[in-house]
Amino acid sequence: IVLEVAAAGSYLINKSPVPGGREGLDSRIHAIYDPRPDKIIFVKGDPAAKYQTVIEAIDVVRGAGVKVIGVTPKDVK
Prior knowledge:
34% of the residues lie in helices and 26% in strands. The chain has 77 residues and is α/β, with parallel strands linked by helices. It has a five-stranded mixed sheet. Helix 1 (21-33) packs across helix 2 (51-63). The termini are far apart.
């Protein structure tokens, strides 16, 4: 599962938009991970996204009980 943080601060999970900002992200993460024994996610921040927005998304994910978080590196140009 990949959580993307877009440049505008919006969220996508596996390319599907997540409505509702942080609250919507929290609800969606719980819906996905509460029934799962393995709680692994990759977080991909758009190069133009604010660092704080990416960290806030990671905080939401951790608050939902996801233990292992992989952060994908920025694209090298």
